[in-house]
Write a structure and sequence with these properties.
Chain A: It comes from Nothoprocta perdicaria. The complex is a heterodimer of chains A (343) and B (169). Chain A has 343 residues and is mostly helical. Chain A is 58% helix and 7% strand. In chain A, strands 1-2-3 form a three-stranded antiparallel sheet, covered by helices on one side. The relative contact order of chain A is 0.07. The chains are: A mainly alpha (343), B alpha/beta (169).
Chain lengths: 343, 169
Amino acid sequence: SSSGCSRLLSGGEGRGDALNPCVIIMLRGKKSSLRAFFFLFSFLFFSFFFFFFFPFPSSLLIPLKNSVFPLSEKPNWDYHAEVQAFSHRLHENFSLDLLKRAFVNPCYIKAEEERRQALGLSQEAVALNLQDNTELWEAGEAFARSYLAQCFEGAYPSLPAEGVAALVGFLSGQELVAHVAQHLAVQELALCARFPVPPPVLHRTFFAVVGALLGSSGPRATGLFVRDFLIPQLIGKDLFEIWEVINPMGLLVEELTKRNMPAPEPRITRQSGVSTVLPVYFVGLYCNKKIIAEGPGETLFAAEEEAARVALRKLYGYTENRRPWDYSKPKQEWAAEKAISSS
Amino acid sequence: MTGRGSASRFLGAVLHNGVGRHVRQLQRLQLVFSPVAPDARGARQFVEEAAVDFARRHPDVVLYVSPRRCPAPLLIAEYRECPRGQSRGHPALLPPAPLGAAVNGAVHEELVSSRSCEEIAGLAARLAARSGLDIVRIRKPFHTASPSVQGQWHPFTNKRPGLAARPNK
């Protein structure tokens, strides 16, 4: 009724509340609009609880999630062109067949064949004419490991075999290689049953790419590729972050006996705040009364251990101020370029 | 806004790019333009004259050309995966995460309406030289993994170790 409406309007303006529910729900009179408001509010209240607390298939929420799906399902995607660009981007001459084969994972072939069978195709149509990358990744991983071991043995000749193995294992480990592969855009080109590609599959695909390069360009170019992409991951890393040594003092004594030096004698060189809650001790290790290393720590035991680690780093030549890794082109390539440019 | 109020990041390269070999970060460039709209004239000229040249000079960038009905001509650049968590600052003030970039790298869109062919070619070359990291204030113009060669100074450096190195424990 008109009198009811006029009362509604005055009620809304009078209180100056823009969200007055009585203004939103213009029904017959104030009382019934209030009732309607409570019904609406309780509906919203219960739907809130329903959506957030009641377990219901989250596939309903997929359109609301940020769009995470592979680039191959977006417009403007030409696989052949992308593979060619990948090859050029890495400054390498890949044979495209080997490279395309390197991206095919066995899980993809299985999933595709199952999908085709589920769609009811005949047996000849189901079988995909694709070779997977198993041999390529085995070859690639073996080559990468042996190349890295050779590099480290040459660069740090006094590093023992366990140290070299720890470095090689870190650089060809799953997380690091998956991280490198993701940043090299291998994930977009890799054919895999799941998206996003899980790290073990990325690890395998990266080594398959290395194997493909080995087949296309030979061991020298592949060695340079492994050097340029894996060895920079050691930047900023300390030796003992990668190689876990439980008893550095014992290892140090072994190393010194190998070099015919007496066992080290630890002495406190500096200390401060001994009776406080944050003491600092510097322990120096002396061989033949000459200092070989000094390390700090909060307790005497920790300081001695740290001093042993510092001594080991100095012995192995893996200190923080060592000469940086050499990424320059090998000398034969410079000579070949000069010959080409002068002729 | 002051520096603290807006997003900022540290200088960095994706995957230590440049230490081993330099790898171009731009992966693909999409030019979306309308075949009849008047403001896409520069884009159409670019496609006719300069696009093939650009593609030849940058074989590692895939150039997609899409003439279709669109409100305005766009040049969309997609970069390699770069870690999104690099910019610091209040989440509401960070550059907005572009659609479809949750897993892949940054996507940068440039409006090229009413631009000439040479301007678009220059813009494409500039996009090809970028790293794809967020364009925010860079806190320091330098970055190093080994800040000290002779050893970081601490209050005991160059101080005498005490009257005699005392016997242990």
